[in-house]
Amino acid sequence: MTTRIHPPAIPSGHGKVPQNLLRVSDLDPARLTQLLELAAQMKHEPLGWQHSLNGAVLGCVFEKPSTRTRVSLATAAHRLGMAAITLNKDEMQLGHGETWADTGRVLSSYLDAITLRTFEHTVVEELAAAASVPVINALSNTHHPCQSLADLLTLSQHFGSLAGLTVAFIGEGRSNTCLSFLEACALVGMHLIVASPRGHTVDEDALAVARKTMERTGGSVTVSADPVDAVRTAQVVYAEVWVPMDRPHERAERAEHFARYRVDRGLLAHAQPDTMVLHCLPAVRGEEITSEVLDGPNSLVWTQAENRLPTAQAVLYTLITGNQI
Ligand code: CP
Predict the structure, then answer these.
(1) Is the Cα dihedral 49, 55, 61, 65 positive or negative?
(2) Is 125 in the same domain as 157?
(3) 81 φ/ψ sector (left φ>0, alpha ψ -120 to 50, else beta)
(4) What is the pTM of this model?
């Protein structure tokens, strides 16, 4: 049996543990930092917590396809001693009109945490409001917090620290990945440049909220239509899919709109030689990113995908145990 390693205690009065993780801004800077530190420890010692949540159960509801989020959360649960069970909406009474609120209330008496991937963010909110166990957003149309945590762990491990890093996000400024990454940049004091075509720029309200947080953390966010200009000063270029998974009918129109926003060797020629590349995956090779870049020496993408597991483990552990990191 592997014994649990001893992570640092939480300084009292800092980093209140949220009940749920529905969006990145459910965390505050102190709690986010602690969560990333715990994830780094869990990456180093994956089985160091293997009996810490013995007997607990995670319920997993996925209304959209998922490879990374589904498997990393289930594996993270197993590594903590939990069972992970898949709940198919069509086989539950949700398919017959039972509300998410009633479902969350009842499931809370059987489960220790619930993770949900769905469409409208209000559905995750409705479930969380009624549930008395932690709810983890495994992706909604507007937020993808689990992805951002892996992004931050990847950057902090590569660069040594996060505050002051400059990232150029290239493509859809209204995606869940972009919005969650914006919230993450705000909390850790990073500089974000989002380059998007007209009609796909970051929501003004989200920008205003992030800028308010950045007044305290020292970060910044700017929007641009010019991907070349965006990558010039960036230490990291974040490529984003052109077509969201629930909008395949927009492929032709988007391919035309986003043609200038491909992360390829030509675009990266305008960046510094040591600029690194992120992509949340799945990638459409040759569309938003070329294979040459995705598999190239400056790609952090595979580490980023790998980091979904320790960050999922840290999220489950932190939310379920409350204050006991
Ligand atoms: N990046 C991400 O969320 O991947 P999946 O859709 O495979 O979960």
Answers:
(1) positive
(2) no
(3) left
(4) 0.94
The whole-angstrom separation of Cα 287 and Cα 293 is: 12
What are 19-46's pLDDT values in tens digits? 999 999 999 999 999 999 999 999 999 9
- Which domain does 219 fall in, by range? 146-305
CA 281-310-31 angle, to 5 degrees, is 105
280 lines ligand 1 (CB under 6 A): yes
CATH number of the domain that residue 265 is part of: 3.40.50.1370
**Do 312 and 289 share a structural domain?**
no
Ligand 1 pocket member 69 (CB < 6 A): yes
Expressed in angstroms and rounded, the spacing between residue 36 Cα and the centre of ligand 1 is 19
Residue 10 CA to ligand 1 centre (angstroms): 30
Q: How many angstroms is it from 147 CA to the middle of ligand 1?
A: 8
Do 170 and 82 belong together in one domain?
no
Q: Do you find a cis peptide bond into 248, omega within 30 degrees of 0? A: no
Q: Are 274 and 231 in contact (CB under 8 A)?
A: no
